[in-house]
Structure formats: C-alpha cells, structure tokens
Specification:
alpha+beta, five-stranded mixed sheet
C-alpha cells in the first residue's frame, strides 16, 4: 500500500523507499522533511518515475541544498526535500544553501544565522539571486522533471567588467615610458659608438676617431 501509487524504489538505491514510507503516514495537512543524497534529484529509471509522480501530484514543495561534510557519517553534500499532501502553490521552491556555512577542521557547520535564513526563505518563499527561486511546474517539466538545483539557480560568478578606456590609457602610459627609456639608453649607446636599440631613432653618433678617448660623462654613468 505504501508504494502502490508511486512504484518500488530500486534495490541499489532505497532513498525513495524511505521517503515513500514516511510520506504514506503523513497526515493530509502535515509537512514532511527528509534528508537525502543529491542523487534523488536527478537519477533516472524507477527513481525518475517516482519523482515525476510526486511532482505531478503536487507533493514536492521545496528542495534545499546543504553544504558538504555536515555529518559525521558522510562527507557528501545532501539535500532536504519538503513534501506536503495538500500543497497550495503550483511551483517548487529551490534553496541553494550549499555555499553558506562555516568551515571547520573536521565538519562544516551551519550557524544559527544560516539556519534562520533557510527557515525564513522557506516560510515566506522568498526569492534571492544565487540563493533561492520559485520554479513553475512548466519549467520543471521542460527539464524532464530533473530537480538538480544548479538547473534552476545559477551559482556562476559574473566576470568583472573591464574599463576599456582606462586600460587603453594605462597601456599608452606604459608605451610612452618604454619609448622615453629606450631613447635615453640609445643616447648612451651613441656616445659609445654602439648601435641603438630597435624601435627608436638614435641620435647622431659622434665622428669616429683614430685615437681612443676617455669615456663621455653619459658613458661613465652607464658603466657605473
């Protein structure tokens, strides 16, 4: 009777068996919350059929993603599925709390502030970029009833905008400093009778002399 309406969960993953067992005994006005691995949100086969049936009947109310390494028994990230037999809104609330925690030496921790934010978001069905979103059933159906949180809440970080005008100005300033340094260096090279560096016209070199001369003042600076 517990599994008649939704089917049996596969033997290899009994997560939905525990869920359906609890859901069977849930009162009509009751609310059920169960901690499960993320695989129940997207695995196919019999689990997909159970998930699809629960969604079409309007029983899955909220999906909450939690950080990894919260429990001593496992280090994998888990989720909380909130189910109701008499759900009112025709949408599913997704909460991505996986990035909101305090890192510990052995276990990560949810502070009272983190927990309060999850509860407030769930209670008032708030929407917040990168954290929570209400998704209509039509969109979930387009995604083939896949409840993977990343499909509905983007966690990508926007790239920093580059000020092209400022960057161009900085490059011009660097180029000017390179030209000035090259011109100054070529002046010393010309005094020594050496060929200039490429990229900058060299000043007129002094006429060649048959007798060696003492180094010019600029050359002394270069040699020092």
């Amino acid at each position: 009777m517990r599994f008649k309406n939704h089917g049996l969960a596969p033997k290899s993953a009994a997560d939905f068996a525990f869920l359906l067992h609890g859901f069977h005994y849930l009162k009509d006005e009751g609310v059920m919350a169960i901690i499960l691995p993320h695989g129940v949100l997207f695995r196919g086969g019999a689990e997909e059929r159970i998930r699809q049936k629960l969604l079409k009947d309007g029983h899955i109310d909220t999906v909450i993603g939690l950080p990894a390494n919260l429990f001593y028994s496992t280090g994998i990230p888990v989720c909380i599925l909130v189910l109701k037999k008499c759900k009112q809104p025709d949408d599913v609330l997704f909460i991505n709390a996986a990035e909101h925690y305090v890192k510990g030496k052995r276990q990560n921790q949810l502070t009272p502030e983190h927990i309060a934010k999850i509860i407030e978001t769930y209670k008032f069905r708030k929407e917040e970029p990168r954290y929570s979103r209400r998704v209509e059933m039509a969109e979930i159906e387009k995604n083939e009833f896949n409840l993977n949180i990343s499909r509905y809440i983007s966690t990508a970080t926007a790239e920093e905008e580059i000020d092209l005008a400022a960057t161009h100005g900085q490059l011009r300033e660097i180029e000017d400093r390179i030209r000035a340094a090259t011109a100054k260096h070529n002046t010393y090279l010309a005094e020594l009778g050496l060929p200039p560096l490429p990229g900058e016209a060299a000043p007129d070199a002094p006429a060649a002399r048959s007798t060696p001369l003492a180094p010019a003042s600029g050359a002394r600076k270069l040699l020092l």
